[in-house]
Amino acid sequence: MNVLLHFLIIMVFMAAVDTDDIVEEKIGKELYDYQQEDLNQIFDHFENSSSNYKLLYQLPTGGGKTVIFSEITRRYITQRKKKVLILTHRIELCKQTSNMLNTFGVNNKVINSQVKELDDADEFMAFVAMVETLNNRLNEKKIDMSDIGLVIVDEAHHNSFRKLFRFFEHAFMLGVTATPLSSNIKLPMKDTYDELIVGSSIEALIDKGFLAKATIYSYDVGLGTLKVGINGDYTVSSSEELYTSDVMRSKLLYAYEQRAKGKKTLIFNNGINTSRYVYETFRVKGYPVRHLDNKHSKKERKDILKWFKETPNAILSSVSILTTGFDEPTIETIIINRATRSLTLYFQMIGRGSRVLPDKSTFDVIDLGNNAARFGMWDSPLDWQKIFRSPQYFLENLISDDDIERAFKYKMPDELRAKFANSDQVEFDIDEAYDQVVKNREKSSTVVDMAIEQHTKIIVENSEDLLEALGLIRLLRDDIEDRIRRYCYRICNSTRNYKEWAIDDYTSRLKKAVSREY
Questions:
Q1: Do 333 and 423 belong to one domain?
Q2: Could you give the number of structural domains in the chain?
Q3: Domain closes at, from 200, 227, 249
Q4: Domain boundary among 200, 219, 245
Q5: Pairwise CA distance, residues 510 & 507, whole Å
Q6: Are 142 and 191 within one domain?
Q7: Does 464 lie in the same domain as 436?
Q8: For the whole model, what pTM was predicted?
Q9: Looking at the domain assignment, is residue 395 inside a domain?
Q10: What single string gives the DSSP state of each residue in 137-173?
């Protein structure tokens, strides 16, 4: 009897208290200052813009956009008493978004392929849907979403969302993206959205300790064989031909061993075959490595990612599948084993390593596609408003691959320079030597002879025996490639086959010259 009385007293008390206040105290996450400022700007637009206004919001990867639009959803429902729809383009993002909404106390329903009708629509104020699934249901007229007041579009730079907009002509549209640059250059985002709000920059988030700082190591890569497809990016076929070559596989392994050995490393490739070749390259060397692509089953993917998470020095070779919807803070090195003309993809790939931990405030990026030269450093300031208004101008003014390669200047890393401490001068200026040779009316090949002679000199000055000298030759690989590349430009023969032959010939002659010294 006492238990029953106690229960009745609690029920009476609960009925007398404002339940919204209780929810406010117990659910959700505390937003950071920069997130709160952006949220306030967005709600100002809810108040002062038309009900069908289309607003775009930019925030860097790792800035917490899912947290922000989950709080927007909660507050919008509370204040406006209208329903909210969140659109995603991948099932993983659907689940993550739904879970985050639950954290904020927003009762929501995921509209996936199993959902044929919405008989229980009245029970929910928020819905999370895959684009294709929702498009099919709406066209089949099996779902009615005429009561949606706000549509939030995650990863808004994708164009697949546009087909749904006609169903929500009276709803407020909020697109969210890290890069307000359309994936289709023929469909600029300024033609879809009325205005852009720019959130905190990557540099600001690094300074505040919300993102890790990237150190980017660029290795010169000749991209002359790559072809651009109709989507504006390099084709998979031409990329695979380049990146499965022995030269590029060897360069990848060299870069890893020089900069990332023993660190948890995520590698991005353009093509499944490339990723499998990369896997084999590391496997035969005895490194802990796995390969992951979109053909793996759900269970296989789960097992591989679990292994990657739990293995401190793991190497995971992937094919763009982990650019969104994937969060592994323990990643120490990102290797971009591909070239891309997509600014969005560039930011997404590097962003996978930017999560901070108590013992992690920095990470490394190995760039094997001249991407940093094409787009600038990851944390460099970008005028997103200008890119939003004039995307074609931005794309047309990207530096060309030929100009990138011509401008690339090799600088011997400090740790390698230390191995040549007995030499005052380790550099050799191919261009200056070539000009002198031409002036003297000598054969152009004399330049190569001079370069080999200089390399021989510094190797002998810094080695005790032939074995050590041959080891130094291997370490000079990037320097040799840079010298040959510059020489090829001066003699107007930059074909891939000639350069590869010239590098092999230079290395062979250098070994013979050094051997003669011992």
A1: no
A2: 3
A3: 200
A4: 200
A5: 5
A6: yes
A7: yes
A8: 0.81
A9: no
A10: HHHTT----TTEEEEEEETTTSGGGGGGGGGGTTSEE
DSSP secondary structure letter of residue 445: T
Domain range holding 277?
Answer: 205-375
Rounded CA gap, 250 and 269, in Å? Answer: 15
177: β partners:
58
Q: Residue 490: which of 419, 432, 410 has the closest Cα?
A: 432
**132 lies in the same domain as 210:** no
pLDDT per residue, tens digit, the chain (518 aa), is 444 444 333 333 333 333 333 233 345 678 899 999 999 999 999 999 999 999 999 999 889 989 999 999 999 999 999 999 999 988 778 888 999 999 999 999 998 888 888 888 888 999 999 888 898 899 988 888 889 999 999 999 987 888 898 999 999 999 999 999 988 878 899 999 999 999 999 999 999 999 999 999 998 888 888 999 988 899 999 999 999 999 899 999 999 999 999 999 999 999 999 999 999 999 999 999 999 998 898 899 999 999 999 999 999 999 978 877 688 999 999 999 999 999 999 999 999 999 999 999 999 999 999 999 999 999 999 999 999 999 989 988 888 888 888 888 888 888 899 999 999 999 999 999 999 999 999 999 999 999 999 999 999 999 999 999 999 999 999 899 999 989 998 998 878 789 889 999 999 999 999 999 98
Examine the domain organization and report whether 358 and 489 are in the same domain. Answer: no
How far, in Å, CA of 75 to CA of 169, rounded?
22
Determine if residue 127 is left, alpha or beta; phi over 0 gives left, psi from -120 to 50 gives alpha, anything else beta: beta
